[in-house]
Design goal:
The protein is of the alpha/beta class. 38% of the residues lie in helices and 14% in strands. The radius of gyration is 21 Å and the shape is globular. Bound molecules: pyridoxal-5'-phosphate (PLP).
Length: 429
């Protein structure tokens, strides 16, 4: 396998792009080496510019749940393109996608489409503040909610990968109303509530995905919801990653907890830029033009993106791949655990539906602190051996691997073999 063309493009890209990437996690900063440049993808496979083929477990960090260029999605996009690209006025498909989304989330009567997960979450915070008339929010260490100022503290994803506690350029004033609690630790939330009167919302990834996969323990989410309710605080479920990933609907449904505001993104655009936030009528009626909370977007509800989202969610509903996802993830967990035993490598695997990842540690990973006990150098070795054996993984210990419904039995054999080789490599460095 050679990466000659990728390396050439990387060097060219450095001139006019920042680090030759448009999102930091795409740089291979934490695993070493240069990022791959991708040429195309189809089904479960992705192909780089040197013609190397990989089984894709990145799936653009989640959206491509049906695999790449599913024929129904492809057809819907092509058909829509013929009528124009964007109009600055409403289209029928916005109503259709809104209905699919609201039907899947019982707590959502109305939804507003935006262009990214970041935008969905920052709008949801504004909405929670508008509705409650309060300013403070609680977020959990290791949860990532996009790159808006107020949420770029103790965040996961690229910040965890690059070991950055926050971001430069965020004024103290922008984060002075952000309180940090620990995932799976209700007492850390209670303490903030005791010390602060004006908390508008608690925001959480109902299943952590941006510090690696972290599962809510016992009744954590239920008790969190009760705590919020008792104190007049809104619960915001950031399901940008988990929405439609592990169930048609979200993690809220699986854990039987209904949030006050839900944020979506990734899967709902099927590969095009779509984010969304929604809630019951009483809350959504605060949003302009019905209410006084302003939020707008030139390309929001873009026709091509709506067509892609509708086709993706309709096909997902039809396929109902969620049981299969569980089985596939269980198998991959088995491959990882067996290989770790065979080569005597400390490893913990967390998974939730179609999200899974190994941590190179002995400790149970239940929050950001335990996630960070992972040996990221070992992950780097593992990552490159997986690449050399034809498996494309996120280039970070702290990102979930994603499964698509396009994975075949043959793909699974290749994944098993690659994991064995990669674990052997980890054990000898
Ligand atoms: C990816 C993600 C975001 C940000 O979405 P973008 O589309 O990258 O802006 C927000 N929250 C969660 C939980 C995410 O996984």
């Amino acid at each position: 396998m050679n990466f000659k063309k990728s390396n050439q493009l990387y060097n060219q890209g450095l001139d006019n792009l920042v680090g030759a990437v448009n999102s930091p996690v795409r740089a291979f900063a934490s695993v070493g080496g240069n990022p791959l440049f991708i040429k195309k993808a189809k089904g479960s496979k992705i192909t780089d510019v040197d013609g190397n083929n990989y089984i894709d477990l990145v799936l653009s960090y989640g959206p491509m749940i049906l695999g790449h260029r599913h024929k129904k999605v492809d057809k819907a996009i092509r058909k829509t393109l013929k009528n124009g690209y964007t109009f600055g006025a409403s289209t029928k498909n916005e109503i259709k996608l809104a209905k699919i989304v609201c039907d899947a989330f019982p707590g959502m009567d109305k939804v507003r489409f935006v262009n990214s997960g970041t935008e969905a979450v920052l709008s949801a915070l504004r909405l929670a503040r508008a509705y409650t008339g309060k300013d403070k929010i609680i977020k959990f260490a290791g949860c990532y909610h996009g790159h808006s100022d107020a949420l770029l503290v103790a965040a996961g994803s690229g910040l965890a990968t690059l070991s950055i506690p926050g971001s430069k350029g965020v004024p103290n004033d922008a984060v002075k109303n952000t309180l940090i609690a620990e995932y799976n630790n209700l007492d850390s939330v209670k303490k903030h509530i005791k010390d602060n009167k004006d908390i508008a919302a608690v925001i959480i990834e109902p299943v952590g995905g941006n510090m690696g996969v972290v599962i809510p323990q016992n009744n954590f989410l239920k008790e969190l919801k009760e705590l919020c309710k008792a104190n007049g605080i809104l619960l915001i479920a950031d399901e940008v990653m988990t929405g439609f990933r592990s169930k048609f609907g979200g993690a809220q449904d699986l854990f039987n907890v209904e949030a006050d505001i839900t944020c979506l993104g990734k899967v709902i655009g099927g590969g095009f830029p779509v984010g969304a936030y929604g809630a019951r009528n009483e809350i959504m009626e605060m949003v302009s033009p019905l209410g006084a909370m302003y939020q707008a977007g030139t390309l929001s509800g873009n026709p091509i993106a709506m067509a892609s989202g509708i086709a993706t969610l309709s096909e997902l509903k039809k396929q109902n791949p969620y049981k299969k996802f569980d089985e596939v993830a269980e198998k991959i967990e088995g491959f990882l655990i067996n290989a770790a035993k065979k080569y005597n490598v400390d490893l913990v695997v967390n998974r939730f539906g179609s999200m899974i990842n190994p941590f190179f540690t002995k400790e149970n990973v239940t929050d950001f602190e335990t996630a960070q006990t992972s040996d990221t150098e070992k992950f780097g070795v593992f990552f490159w051996e997986m690449i050399l054996n034809g498996i494309f993984l996120p280039p970070s210990q702290f990102e979930a691997w994603f499964l698509s419904s396009a994975l075949s039995n043959d793909d699974m054999k290749k994944i098993e073999l690659a994991i064995d080789k990669a674990m052997e490599k980890v054990s000898i460095v």
